[in-house]
């Protein structure tokens, strides 16, 4: 059975995500979450730098903070991808 382009219940057609396009309310929520994640990433960066300079640094804690920072970077990339969809050439 052939699906029509207006039927968004199936798999994505021509880069359109199932369920329709993102509206401005969703866009605002994504931007807000993205700003929050970026701030948390900066805070972790500051904490890592401070811990690296400490004379009695806790290597396990430092490793965990770096791992958390990488996880946040991945989340930020996913949210940025939601805002800037890929263009199929």
Number of strands: 0
The rounded distance between the terminal residues' Cα atoms is: 27 Å
Instruction: Indicate the structural class.
Output: mainly alpha
**Parts with pLDDT < 50 across at least 5 consecutive residues:** 1-20
Largest sheet: none
The proportion of strand residues reads under 5%
What percent of residues adopt helix (DSSP H or I)? 55-70%
Radius of gyration: 20 Å
Description:
The protein has 89 residues and is mainly alpha-helical. It has a domain at 24-83. It has 2 helices and no strands. The chain has helices at 24-53, 59-83. The longest helix has 30 residues, at 24-53. Mean pLDDT is 79; it is low at 1-20.
List the helices and strands and how they pair.
Layout: H1 24-53, H2 59-83
Helix pairs in contact: 1-2
InterPro entries: DUF465, DUF465_sf
Protein name: DUF465 domain-containing protein
Organism: Rhodomicrobium vannielii (strain ATCC 17100 / DSM 162 / LMG 4299 / NCIMB 10020 / ATH 3.1.1)
What does this entry show, briefly?
Helices cover 62% and strands 0% of the residues. It is mostly helical. The two termini are 27 Å apart.
For this entry, give a set of tags.
89 residues; single chain; disordered N terminus; 2 helices; mainly alpha
């Amino acid at each position: 059975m052939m699906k029509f382009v207006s039927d968004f219940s199936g798999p994505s057609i021509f880069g359109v995500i199932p369920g329709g396009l993102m509206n401005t309310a969703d866009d605002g929520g994504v931007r807000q979450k993205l700003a929050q994640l970026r701030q948390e990433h900066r805070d972790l960066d500051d904490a890592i730098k401070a811990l690296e300079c400490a004379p009695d640094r806790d290597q396990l804690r430092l490793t965990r903070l770096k791992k958390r920072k990488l996880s946040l970077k991945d989340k930020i990339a996913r949210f940025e991808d939601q805002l800037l969809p890929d263009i199929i050439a």
